[in-house]
Amino acid sequence: MNGSPHVLVAEDEDLVALVVAEMLEAAGFRVTVVQNGQKAIEADAADAADLLVTDMRMPVLGGEALIRCLRQRRTDLPIIVMTGYSEDLPDEEPGCLIILRKPFPLEALVHHVGSLLNRRST
Fold first, then answer.
1. Which run of H or E residues covers position 82?
2. Residue 78 domain-assigned?
3. Where do runs of H (alpha helix) occur along 1-122?
4. 107 is in which domain, residue-wise?
5. What is the count of structural domains for the chain?
6. Which positions ≥6 away from 63 have C-beta within 8 Å?
7. Residue in 4, 40, 42 with CA at minimum distance from that of residue 24
8. How far is the C-alpha of 28 from the C-alpha of 96, rounded, in Å?
9. What gap in Å lies between CA 93 and CA 87, rounded to an integer?
């Protein structure tokens, strides 16, 4: 990867999105924040992400449909799911899809983003 890895964050709660973006930018990642899955698909088409961080429940298009759509184009896209819910979650995939249940320490998110991106670049 050239430059800073690009992390796409799909989160409809403004405060959560702001805090996540600030933490990831402070860790050296380039971050794009959108409020729903449809905007995430559009943002990814315009500027492909190296990793997706997504909530599951969002307006317009939720996380499950977003993951399915992006994985059709790029099966190896690393994904981190942030959720406060326990139903209708995708299966974790070691090294490719991680689920973080809200609330979680923000350091854990930064750690997992770095870990997934490092695994992808090797």
1. strand 79-83
2. yes
3. 14-26, 37-46, 63-73, 106-121
4. 6-121
5. 1
6. 10, 37, 54, 55, 56, 57, 81, 83
7. 4
8. 21
9. 17
